[in-house]
Design goal:
The chain is mainly alpha-helical and 109 residues long. It has helices at 4-17, 31-42, 62-73, 100-103, and strands at 83-87, 93-97. The mean pLDDT is 77.
């Protein structure tokens, strides 16, 4: 069985090559990938910004991640839209702030 680091390395390499990914959906059930994504998000300066719900990264728990994986496995998870936020002078710069569960999906970068 491949480690989470190996899986992310393969995904990055295939992305650089422009190669398609196959059977990637089953990686959404890999708890270690979520924990790595959480560690990446938690150290981010913007981690305390709330998304479409009142949740922030500091409120994430292992039980929530396990529930998210279970919802995905049984096709119960529903994506939510991002909350649009403006920064800078006169609100010229816009970015989307996602719901915490969406932020914690495994990332390749």
């Amino acid at each position: 069985m491949r480690s989470a680091e190996q899986i992310l390395g393969i995904i990055r390499e295939r992305g650089k090559q422009g190669s398609p990914l196959e059977d990637i959906y089953r990686q959404l059930y890999n708890l270690t990938l979520y924990l790595m994504a959480y560690a990446h998000l938690y150290s981010n300066e913007g981690a305390m910004i709330r998304g479409t719900t009142s949740e922030t990264v500091d409120g994430m728990a292992l039980k929530k991640i396990e529930q998210l994986i279970d919802d995905l496995r049984h096709e119960r998870y529903r994506w939510t839209p991002a909350r649009r936020t403006y920064t800078g002078t006169a609100g010229l710069h816009a970015f989307g702030v996602c719901q915490l569960a969406s932020d914690c999906f495994p990332t390749a970068g």
